[in-house]
Amino acid sequence: MRSSFFILLLFSLLHVYSFAQQPYTILISFDGFRYDYMDRGITPNLWKVAENGVKATSLRPVYPSKTFPNHFSIITGMYPENHGIINNTMYDPHTKDIYKINDPAQVRNPRWYKGEAFWETAQRYGIT
């Protein structure tokens, strides 16, 4: 009984160790975060993350320069006219639906989205 416990514990630890060795991608995006905010010394933890990873040196917003169109462009690599999220609030005259970024039911409705997020592409190619 005791040896079974130790074998189970060993396999559990090996699984945790192998899981911890896999690289992660963490995307942090701040809306309205000026380019020089990190240089002001008020975000030491963000600097630690950036020093051990990747930090964008410049960005160019898509048009319209709104929150959700830009965030969806970041994760899909597509322009708003291609991925379908053209504003934070939109009206569909055919279905009479209103899309709002603060409406969970509409945000979860896949009919609004025409792009594929980078993590979906990675899964499709077996990278994750």
H/E element string?
HHHHEEHH
Mean pLDDT: 84
Strand order of the largest sheet: 1-2
Bin the strand percentage: under 5%
> What is the tally of beta strands?
2
User: Helix segment count?
Assistant: 6
Helix content: 40-55%
Shape: globular
Distance between the terminal alpha carbons, to the nearest Å?
36 Å
Question: How does the helix and strand content classify structurally?
Answer: mainly alpha
**Largest sheet features:** 2 strands, antiparallel
Described by its quaternary structure, the protein is: single chain
Query: Which regions have little confidence, pLDDT < 50, spanning 5+ residues?
Result: none
Could you tell me the radius of gyration in angstroms? 21 Å
Describe the protein in words.
It is built from 6 helices and 2 strands, in the order ααααββαα. The protein has 128 residues and is mainly alpha-helical. The protein has a domain at 60-128. The protein has a two-stranded antiparallel ribbon. A hairpin with a 6-residue loop joins β1 (89-91) and β2 (98-100). The longest helix is centred in the first third of the chain and has 19 residues, at 2-20. The radius of gyration is 21 Å and the shape is globular. The model has no long low-confidence stretch (mean pLDDT 84).
List keywords for this structure.
about 130 residues
Give me a quick take on this structure.
With 128 residues, this protein is mainly alpha-helical.
Give the arrangement of secondary structure elements:
Elements: H1 2-20, H2 44-51, H3 67-76, H4 80-83, E1 89-91, E2 98-100, H5 104-107, H6 118-124
Antiparallel strand pairs: 1-2
